[in-house]
Design brief:
The complex is a heterodimer of chains A (about 110) and B (about 110). Chain A has no helices and eleven strands. With about 110 residues, chain A is mainly beta. In chain B, the strands form two sheets. In chain B, strands 2, 4, 5, 9, 10 and 11 form a six-stranded mixed β-sheet that branches. Chain B has a five-stranded antiparallel β-sheet with strand order 1-3-8-7-6, with no helix packed on it. In chain B, strand 6 and strand 7 form a beta hairpin. The interface of A and B includes residues 41, 43, 56, 92 and 103 of A.
Chain lengths: ~110, ~110
């Protein structure tokens, strides 16, 4: 089955700790995205990547970092600089070429602070 | 600054009724308007989408109405069912700012049986 896999489903972070959220897709999509979802806030863009080895900051990139070494993988690191990391994190991907194309989402990772 | 304004925040509809969710935008560079449905603990799933050169699009019980001059678009769910109870997000794509979507804040729909 083609899709987007996010892991883990639940993650707990201690103060001062960096944590990495995994996002893997087997849809052969070029573009990948990370969103943060807070209650009543909709989805806000953290980072996105349209091609391997290239990525851009979204609206709320501070305290986060990403890498895009492989087409199918786009991990997100929540650093200790992110003071309010508790949220539901969603990864998405989209084919490029003929636009517009819909984004497809994974089932998210819920991050909480210990 | 919120670029896509969605209302209402929550909606309760009786089974068989019509659910209507509205969105408004200001940026004329938006060129694609999808609606997503999200169930608790799951990622959003594309429901239906429209481009601004079309005034209406229907897929089953779901219809998007688009008013380009008013910069408004809405989702209508006909014959609403308890299984439609979910959070709905409208979104828009800015064709001058990359390929990411800008989302409304969501509407929580409850369909009572």
């Amino acid at each position: 089955d083609g899709g987007i896999t996010q892991s883990p489903k639940y993650l707990f972070r201690k103060e001062g700790q960096n944590v990495t959220l995994s996002c893997e897709q087997n849809l052969n999509h070029d573009a990948m995205y990370w969103y943060r979802q807070d209650p009543g806030q909709g989805l806000r863009l953290i980072y996105y990547s349209q091609i391997v080895n290239d990525f851009q900051k979204g609206d709320i990139a501070e305290g986060y970092s990403v890498s895009r070494e492989k087409k199918e993988s786009f991990p997100l690191t929540v650093t200790s600089a992110q003071k309010n990391p508790t949220a539901f994190y969603l990864c998405a991907s989209r084919p490029t070429g003929v636009s517009p194309q819909p984004q497809h989402f994974g089932d998210g990772t819920r991050l909480s602070i210990l | 600054q919120q670029q896509v304004k969605q209302s209402p925040q929550s909606l309760i509809v009786q089974k068989g009724g019509i659910s209507i969710i509205n969105c408004a935008y200001e940026n004329t560079a938006f060129d694609y308007f999808p609606w997503y449905q999200q169930f608790p603990g799951k990622g959003p799933a594309l429901l239906i989408a429209i481009r601004p050169d079309v005034s209406e699009k229907k897929e089953g019980r779901f219809t998007i109405s688009f008013n380009k001059s008013a910069k408004q678009f809405s989702l209508h769910i006909m014959d609403s069912q308890p299984g439609d109870s979910a959070t709905y997000f409208c979104a828009a794509r800015d064709n001058q700012a990359g390929t990411a979507l800008i989302f409304g804040k969501g509407t929580t729909l409850s369909v009572s049986s």
